Amino acid sequence: MRLYVAAYGLSSDRLYATAFMVLLIGVFAWFVWTVLRGSGSRFALGALMQAFAVLAGLHVLNPDAFIVKTNLNRPTAERPLRRTLRRVAWRDAVPPLLDALPTTQR
């Protein structure tokens, strides 16, 4: 996913897919730690807590603003403003776009 984001930029689909991959890694590690070691009764609660932690992390991250900031930090030739604006329709993404306006080219 890192190579894909490096080539095409970050989008909401790519961000949520990455968050889901992080959740899967945690759940698989928790599965190995609990079920394969003989205490499988704790697995479901731990997996649920990890899912809540990933959701809380996404909420704190503010995905729309993070996507815009990440795409605006790419080299100028790889991030035309029109393409960035086409993907942005969220209120949280407007402040980073306004901050970047003086540095963007048309």
Outline the fold blueprint.
Elements: H1 2-8, H2 12-34, H3 43-61, H4 63-72, H5 81-87, H6 94-100
Helix pairs in contact: 2-3, 4-6
Largest sheet: none
One letter per element, helices H and strands E, the order comes to: HHHHHH
Low-confidence stretches: none
Q: pLDDT average, as an integer?
A: 83
Anisotropy-based shape? elongated
Feature tags:
mainly alpha, 6 helices, 0% strand, elongated
Can you summarize this structure?
By secondary structure, the chain is an all-alpha fold. The chain contains 6 helices and no strands.
Give an overview of the whole structure.
The structure is a single chain. This protein is mainly α. Helix content is about 70%, strand content about 0%. It is built from 6 helices and no strands. The radius of gyration is 18 Å and the shape is elongated.
